[in-house]
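Annotated sample (chain length 248).
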Amino acid sequence: MTTQVALVGGTGKLGSIIRDVIDGLEGFEVSRVLTSTSDWSELDGADLVVDASTPQVSVEVVRAAVERGLNVLVGTSGWSNERIALVRPLVEAAGTGAVFIPNFSLGSVLGSALASAAAPFFDSAEIVEAHRDTKIDSPSGTAVRTAELIAASRTDQGPVSAPHVDQRARGQQVAGVPIHSLRRPGVIARQDVVLSGPGESLTFTHDTVEPSLAYAPGIRLAVPYALGARGVVVGLENMVDIGIRARS
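Output written by the structure step:
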């Protein structure tokens, strides 16, 4: 039996990649493609909802899916722990599953996990992320997730040292970690996590060079996983054994 997938935002950059990957997955079919202006009744009859819309619309997609008893895979950026907390009770009450993936790239997941594992050994942590000038949100969902993982890994040490954060140029703080966002032409996606301590620093860098190649393996893992998920799951690291179990 073929799983019918409703893809929201399927005409966008990420949505088009997701659609191509799902078309190549055995047992899955994109049976309907929705936009941000579609009527949510178009979700009726689907087996799984995949969201690649916009941060403003994404919460509506999740609610519409949960109300219909459907699991949802969310690839849209902008979902912090605080925002996820708003829909978690709905997902749990419905007995469905909502899987949030800040970044489908396996390299990005590894970079964030390694940075969070190293963070307890350094006093300072800052994130610099760059995306193309058409990206509509900042900081990126990947940077938000990385900052949250760094903070979670430092429960024994406390927050990172972040002096002068009252100054706007010091970046937006997420979970106590300063994030600096660059939006410029010619960039696809890059993230640097800079950890600093007495006399040394350690930088973890991830570059996305070709999105369709970088995201495809993660999408192939996430779509079948999301179909059987229960409750709220955050991060591709839950689907791969990378030897480092970051705290959510």
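Annotation: The mean pLDDT is 95.
Annotation: The longest strand covers residues 189-197.
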